[in-house]
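Listing S7. Sequence submitted for prediction.
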Amino acid sequence: MHTLIMVEFLGWHGPIHPRLIVVMSSPTVAILVRTKDRPRFLSRALENIAQQTFTDYTVCVINDGGDEQATRAVIEASPLGLLGSNAQDSSRVQLLTTAGGNMEAASNAGLAATTSEYVAIHDDDDLWAPEFLERTVAALEESGALMCTTRVVERYERENADGEFEVYEERIFHDGLPGMGLQFLFRTNRAVPIGILYRRSLHELVGFYDESLPVVGDWEFNMRAASVADILLVDEPLAYWSLRPDAEGAEANSVKRQADHARFDSLVRARAIREDLQAGARPGAYLYQAHLAADLERRVIDGHDLTRESLDILRSIESRLERIEARQQSIESRQQSIEERLRVLKHLRTPGRALRSLAKRSLSQRSLVRRGAEAESADQKGA
């Protein structure tokens, strides 16, 4: 059973079913912007989309349970905005307001309300390089692939003293990854929505987004896509995935919900195994892989324990070396003190020896003078 959504398009506002396709002139790309009560991010996203060098697109803003009036105001103030302001731009942006189920439900609602050859998901806090659509559309048209992804830049942001988010670190997401095959996706998601463009016809092969998954839905969809065709890697950093580890509330990322990610990651894997067994697979391979995983986990734990013991020994040695160093410094300090005292005593003794030497020379000179005087007196008496 599907919930109704509200759609504002070409001045009309009313309910539609999420699976209903709105028939109209079809642009090449439908850009689905998922948002909820993040006006400054939405404003940034719409401005970013307006900078694309490829312009044959429509934008569907899915207000997923947020303030509809505030969302509309942001759209109308954006470079893409002023809904229905003229005939040329009247179909450029539409606003959907949904009940706030989850991100995958919002994506399906956007798909239902648009028509296009290609689909891109541009969440409100992420960004594209100006050439993103130009390069990805060309890549799909030239290759015939169903889906492609560019290299993605992880863009770490934090709020400054002025209340603005500024970038403090950037790095390539899974740098060095040679491709986007299932062998990589089975481990963890290597392709985030902001870096992906795909053909709408892909849904005819693998279905829509799984609305039962509040998180990891993009990963699960990517695996289904990769199971029917290769995902083309456009080897250029053309997308920016914004991360705010310190943010809270509406401005935080879904990746902060680590417990939910772990739980639904496990659910997706368990469901895939169950479906495989129900289709006739035997459990032997899974049991053996589970045994290998348990053995590896045990080895990791043993290695961790050994590492911890080694660290304890190293800390003990370090502590002993610090005590030896402290004693050495104490000995050197005492030695310096003794040497300083000896230098002082030496300086004190030197003047004393000089005075005694001078006194001896003076006495010797007096003695010679006296003996000379006595000899002269004796000579005078003898004469």
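Caption to Listing S7: primary sequence and predicted structure tokens for the chain studied. Confidence is low (pLDDT under 50) at residues 1-24, 83-88. DSSP finds nine helices and eleven strands in the chain.
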